[in-house]
Amino acid sequence: MINQYTLDRFEGFYAVLVDKGNEHNELMVLKERLIAFAKVGDTLAIDFDSIGNLKHVEIIPKEKADSEEPEKEKELEGL
């Protein structure tokens, strides 16, 4: 299952991710898994394996992350 998180900050050896669906839900992952390609503020799509390890991580382009909700609203307006 793909989950969306925002890279909120780096703390020591960890990257702190905030769940896009629940801003009160934070996830800490090893910084070395993300620091090479992600920066603070990036929206990430993360797929976890069956025991909770990062299986796949990709950056969602800012335009797409920002425009997801308005596009849904536009689709509903035409109905």
Strand content range:
35-45%
Count of distinct strands: 5
Q: So what's the overall shape?
A: globular
Structural class: alpha+beta
CATH architecture: Beta Barrel
Walk me through the structure.
This is DUF3006 domain-containing protein. The structure is a single chain. With 79 residues, the chain is of the alpha+beta class. It has a single domain (2-77), classed as OB fold (Dihydrolipoamide Acetyltransferase, E2P) (Beta Barrel). It is 20% helix and 43% strand. The protein is built from 1 helix and 5 strands; from the N terminus they run E-E-E-E-E-H. It has one helix spanning 62-77, and strands spanning 2-11, 14-19, 26-30, 43-48, 54-60. It has a 5-stranded antiparallel sheet. A hairpin with a 5-residue loop joins strand 4 and strand 5 (54-60). The model is unreliable at 70-79 (pLDDT under 50).
At a glance:
It comes from Thalassobacillus cyri. With 79 residues, the protein is α+β, with helices and mostly antiparallel strands.
List the helices and strands and how they pair.
Blueprint: E1 2-11, E2 14-19, E3 26-30, E4 43-48, E5 54-60, H1 62-77
Antiparallel strand pairs: 1-2, 1-4, 2-3, 4-5
Organism: Thalassobacillus cyri
Protein name: DUF3006 domain-containing protein
